[in-house]
Specification:
single chain; alpha/beta; Rossmann fold; seven-stranded mixed β-sheet; 13 helices; binds nicotinamide-adenine-dinucleotide
Length: 376
């Protein structure tokens, strides 16, 4: 198969879908890999490194004219028009972006959105949400530590004692767990909240304290279990109790890292304007949920501004929507391995293309085929 790797053109996107490591493996499997000149530069990968791995350097038209096009983000209109009918496109194509999927269907592409893979053990090695959320959790704490004008660890010095920073993590999925682990390494004191009580043990194993909220009705207990590992919207009664508990912690916090998401819905509001007002001057909120709603807006705090850092009521709010792009080299390395693993499902060793809809991962990720949007 001819595999194309275009340069990403979305604003602020620094990642690339194939690294020299994965290009070498694809070439060893008998594929030809063409990479758009400069595609890896923002992730510290030179054209020469791709050539050394056995890939050929081409232009945008050459990369999009391949039989299999590997992307980070969904192609734009102009890019989709460069695709050959029947081309396979693999990337983080945003399953909730109806217009983007229609564009790929109209181009005649067979498109796979890796974010739609089930959260199962077999899909773990191609789980782009996890590989990138892990990086977002880490980078959020790095930004918070950089922005916050005090130390994270407790320090006992000749000039006096400095208290450890208090960090509150809201939403303990992949990003939240990494945020806890990273803040802990820096010496912070951490408290965390999630709707799913099953994460309490994980929070504690990382040295954090779980913010307990009781589940008083059958409806609350049933919602807390979630679906497929993801959270479900919680009843208002539970959210009110959670908000009261979280408000007490946020008022004491130096840093809040919020990550709470519910697939296909707007991010829940967990930090209200009143809570921001209650925080000490100089506190920092990094809203990882910023821009993660299905329509690319929203966040866990209504004061968050997407892709901006603003100071409101004396609190710095960071609304970066693409934190993994700020760790471009490792984000690309992990993403490229996810993509490589997914390709094993559709490019069998014996050659050709195989779209086996009996395979739950292939079926869940397939978004378009034969001119139609086929998203489940
Ligand atoms: P996510 O990004 O969808 O959401 C982040 C977190 O926010 C979740 O933990 C969610 O429960 C929480 N949340 C939602 N509403 C909230 C609210 N009102 N208050 C507080 N927290 C709220 O989650 P994710 O990181 O994609 O992880 C989702 C699940 O998938 C987790 O259980 C994770 O362990 C699991 N997972 C499984 C696998 C696997 O088995 N292969 C791989 C990765 C993740």
């Amino acid at each position: 198969m001819l595999i194309g790797v275009p340069a990403e053109t979305a604003a602020g996107e620094t990642r690339v879908s194939v690294t020299p490591e994965t290009a070498k493996k694809l070439v060893a499997q008998g594929h030809a890999v063409v990479v758009q000149s400069g595609a890896g530069l923002a992730a510290s990968v030179t054209d020469a490194a791709y050539e050394a791995a056995g890939a050929q350097i081409t232009d945008a038209a050459g990369a999009f004219a391949a039989e299999v096009v590997l992307k980070v983000r969904a192609p734009s209109d102009a890019e989709a028009s460069l695709l050959k009918p029947g081309a396979v496109v693999v990337g983080m194509l945003n399953p909730f972006d109806a217009a983007g999927l229609q564009r790929l269907a109209t181009a005649g592409a067979t498109a796979f959105a890796l974010e739609a893979a089930p959260r199962t053990t077999r899909a773990q090695s191609m789980d782009v949400l996890s590989s990138q959320a892990n990086i977002a959790g880490y980078k959020a704490v790095m930004i918070a530590a950089d922005t916050y004008q005090r130390f994270f660890p407790m320090l006992m010095t000749a000039a006096g004692t400095v208290k450890a920073a208090r960090v509150v993590v809201l939403g303990v999925g992949v990003a939240g767990l990494q945020a806890i682990a990273t803040a802990k390494r820096l010496g912070a004191v951490i408290e965390a909240s999630d709707v799913r009580p099953s994460v309490k043990e994980q929070v504690e194993s990382l040295g954090g304290k779980f913010i307990e909220v009781s589940y008083d009705t059958d409806e609350e207990k049933e919602a807390a279990v979630g679906v497929g590992g993801y959270a479900k919207p919680m009843p208002a009664s539970w959210l009110a109790r959670q908000q009261a508990e979280v408000a007490k912690r946020v008022a004491q916090a130096d840093v809040v890292i919020s990550t709470a998401l519910i697939p296909g819905r707007a991010a829940p509001t967990l930090v209200t304007e009143a809570m921001v007002k209650s925080m000490k001057p100089g506190s920092v909120i990094v809203d990882i949920a910023a821009g993660k709603g299905p329509d690319g807006v929203g966040g866990n705090c209504p004061l968050t501004e997407t892709d901006r850092t603003v100071v409101k009521h004396g609190v710095t709010l960071v609304g970066e929507t693409n934190l993994p792009a700020q760790v471009a080299a490792d984000a690309s390395a992990l993403y490229a391995r996810n993509v490589l693993d997914f390709l094993k499902l559709i490019l069998p060793k014996e050659g050709g293309l195989k779209i086996d809809l009996e395979d739950d991962i292939v079926a869940a990720c397939r978004m378009t085929q034969d001119g139609q949007v086929t998203r489940k």
